[in-house]
Each structure stands twice: as structure tokens, then as C-alpha cells.
Amino acid sequence: MSEGDTYDILSMTFLTVLYGSGPIMILALVVGLAIAFFQALTQVQEMTLTFVPKIVVIMLGLVVLTPLMYLVLKRLSDQVFDMLIVGAP
């Protein structure tokens, strides 16, 4: 395995992490912004109002997006194993 193969594996790994965690992070960002906007409009500064909806949305997002995360990780592992098999002497 050459340095180019190592670079390819690292770049595929970083993209896989972004594709796997990105949707959950976007959900948390959108819910956090909506809650902050609601708190700014109503001047309700309840601490549990910021955490509970985020946790619920993240858990629901994980339940819904787990197959997508699995497919992304499976694609990475298939590519890496294929690279290892082709590069074997």
C-alpha cells in the first residue's frame, strides 16, 4: 500500500464521518435556532426548554437515520477492504 492509498483512505474516512454525522448535526442546529428564536421572542429563559426538544429530535433523528449511517459506513469498509485485497501481493 502506497502513500496515495493511505491518503485516499483518510479522505474517504473524513467524508464518511461528515456524511454520517452531518444530518444529526443539522437537525440539532435547526432545533437550537428555533428554540433560541422562540426564547428571544417570548423572553422565556427556561433552561430545560433548550435541552429537552434537542434531545428528543436527536433521538428521533438517530432512529430514522441509522440505516443511512450504516450504508455510509458499509460503503467505506467495502472500499477499504477492496483496496487491501487489490494491493495484497
From TrEMBL:
Key words of the record? Cell membrane, Cell projection, Cilium, Flagellum, Membrane, Transmembrane, Transmembrane helix
Where does it live in the cell? Cell membrane
Q: Give the transmembrane ranges.
A: 12-39, 51-73
Q: How does it sit in the membrane?
A: Multi-pass membrane protein
* Taxonomy, superkingdom: Bacteria
Keyword Mitochondrion in the entry? The reply is no
* Span of the signal peptide: none
**Pfam families per the record?**
Bac_export_3
InterPro entries in the cross-refs: Bac_export_3 (IPR002191)
Give the family this protein belongs to, as stated in its UniProt record: Belongs to the FliQ/MopD/SpaQ family.
Please report the name of this protein according to its UniProt entry. Flagellar biosynthetic protein FliQ
